[in-house]
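tokens incoming
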């Protein structure tokens, strides 16, 4: 994957937030946080360079880019955080004002015809059959009309975390689904299983808040 484009843009948008949360959540002083960030950037570029290009129709490129950024910071820090602290760190680093705006905007379109069609197209694409760092999912609409579920049987984040020796920390990334759903304001996120916790799939259920 080329660094120029989305990966470079995501670094510009989020690197400052990732650096600030090194101090606010993980307790590093400002100078150490600055040093970690300096080391993380070339590591991030290296991780990105080793990933295959995503298909144009693949909606999950941003997910793997965000994962690569988090991994770069973890691997550049002097201490490895536990899952609980990393969960807090990742959520606060990602949920910047622009990200919250993006979630609210997406929430307004949830369950629209375009949203449903996009989910069905993603399920049909089965991008992970050709790119191990992407996702395969099945799409299910709830019979009572209260929402829908994406059921993921392949997860690019799991693959990348295993490659980088960080698989035990994967649940910290899974938890962001709840945070983004809450920020969107339109859905209650429902989950029973994740691949990272030993499930056969990851279920991402979205129920209408007004249901």
């Amino acid at each position: 994957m080329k660094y120029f484009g989305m990966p470079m843009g995501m670094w510009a948008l989020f690197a400052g937030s990732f650096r600030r949360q090194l101090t606010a959540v993980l307790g590093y002083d400002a100078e150490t946080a600055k040093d970690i960030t300096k080391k993380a950037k070339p590591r991030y570029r290296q991780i990105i360079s080793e990933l295959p290009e995503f298909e144009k129709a693949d909606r999950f490129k941003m997910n793997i880019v965000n994962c690569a950024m988090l991994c770069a910071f973890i691997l550049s820090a002097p201490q490895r955080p536990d899952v609980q602290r990393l969960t807090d760190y990742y959520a606060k680093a990602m949920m910047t004002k622009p990200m919250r705006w993006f979630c609210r905007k997406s929430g307004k379109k949830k369950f629209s015809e375009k949203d449903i069609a996009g989910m069905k197209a993603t399920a049909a694409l089965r991008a992970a059959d050709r790119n191990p760092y992407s996702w395969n999912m099945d799409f299910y609409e709830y019979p009572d009309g209260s929402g829908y579920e994406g059921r993921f049987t392949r997860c690019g984040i799991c693959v990348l975390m295993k490659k980088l020796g960080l698989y035990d920390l994967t649940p910290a990334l899974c938890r962001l689904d709840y945070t983004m759903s809450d920020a969107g304001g339109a859905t209650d996120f429902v989950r029973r299983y994740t691949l990272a916790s030993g499930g056969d799939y990851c279920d991402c259920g979205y129920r209408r808040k007004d249901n």
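note: The chain has a mean pLDDT of 97.
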